[in-house]
Known about the structure:
The chain has helices at residues 3-9, 30-39; strands at 15-19, 41-49, 52-53, 58-59, 62-72, 75-85, 91-96, 106-109, 112-115, 120-123, 126-129. By secondary structure, it is mainly β.
Amino acid sequence: MSASLIFDITPRGSLVAYSDGAPRPPARFTRKLAAWQRRNGTGRLVRKEPARERSTYMSPTCFTLHEGTFGQNGIILVSVMRTYGIDSDLRFRVIECPGIGQVRVLQAMATASRRKPRRRRVVAGKERPSPGPHRGGDRRRTQR
């Protein structure tokens, strides 16, 4: 399946595999294996952006796959996202679509939105949404 079909018909939240069609090199060739892994993998479709034209630049139609997060003890250090244009030479395949009735939480970012896991906290035995930076969650006040 081409990148343009992924953009046109695949719903956000789908698990998508991508490949360049090359066979996997042996593990002893570490540089070739690393290059192959950059062009072959899977990710969750989290963002679709139509083409935008500004006075200084033009942004092509693209979509973003979330490949994973890396961290320790519940703290996310790195979140790996890869963005592909619809003119990409890679081949894509849908592995899994979101189930019927599955709820997705979206976070607006500028003019686009992306899928975001929902966080909850428990205060005095009641479940409440986590405070965001707009509510002064982790900001500390200094005295003058």
